[in-house]
Amino acid sequence: MSKITVFESVTVDGVMQGPGRSDEDTRGGFTHGGWAEGYQDEVSMKYAGEGMSAQQGLLFGHRTYDDVLGHWTSIGPNPFVDVLLGSDKFVVSHTSDTVLAYANSELLAGDAVSTVAGLKDRYSRDLMIMGSGQLVRRLHTAGLIDRYTLLIHPVVLGSGTRLFTDGDRVNLKLERSIPTTTGVTIAEYIVAP
Questions:
Q1: Is 90 exceeded by the pLDDT of residue 193?
Q2: What's the CA gap between 123 and 13, in Å, rounded?
Q3: pLDDT for residue 58
Q4: Number of CB atoms found within 10 A of residue 76's CB
Q5: Please, what are the domains in the chain?
Q6: What 3-state DSSP class applies to 129?
Q7: Do residues 162 and 144 touch, judged by C-beta distance below 8 A?
Q8: Are 24 and 34 in contact (CB under 8 A)?
């Protein structure tokens, strides 16, 4: 059975919307896109590289799949493209007519909770979700997330889509914490039983 790890950049106030670029996610009139720019350092890049080199599948919501792969494959040579393209990619979508443009991609059409629960049962490797906030919230509520790796940035935005919304209490256990030179804290949590 697979374990699912969420890998997210968040602000101190929990916003996960649009960390990478000003135009990444403007839904709801969000104007703070690109808030994580300038916080990368050798520590965070090494950590991200280690995570990307693990033999695991990638799980995306459809919108994030298009955005992440479209962006990273368009900016020229970089260490993440080969991993993104070579990894098994599973894409959750409400509709069965969703077109997946990249090799090694499988569509999980229908209800996110049931399709991902089925994937966890049949897939032999662990899975990582990057971004895909709506999908993360659905799977979190259903108890399907096993681990969270949060890159907590020293920023308070005051608005934007937060990683967690109102819901039941879930206890997390900190397994590892890594400070970066730019003030980002990389925190690895497991979901406590």
A1: no
A2: 34
A3: 95
A4: 7
A5: 4-191 (3.40.430.10)
A6: strand
A7: no
A8: yes
